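User: Run a structure prediction on this.
Assistant: Running it now.
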Amino acid sequence: MAGTWRGILGTVKVSFGTTGATEEFIRLLPEGIGVVITYAAVTEHSLEGFREAFDGYDRKVAKLAQLGVCDLIQPEGWAHARAPGPRSRFRPRSRRGPAAAR
């Protein structure tokens, strides 16, 4: 792949319809980086919708990993990266194993 000599970035975006954001993201990358994009398709922007988004992200990241074409996989968006405060009702499950607690 002559156009992706630096590597391929797999990214999971929040939903369809983020017009312009994808193009701007690609323009920011250095020459030689390819991009494979998939969407978690978050449609309900509520507490339950964001909880379900975690499972959607997991499935999409797993699919990109299964394809084996990406050098790095980056989940994007608020739903996946949100860090709830101590009183938040929104508690995403931990992605870390027992070693992370050390």
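The radius of gyration is 15 Å.
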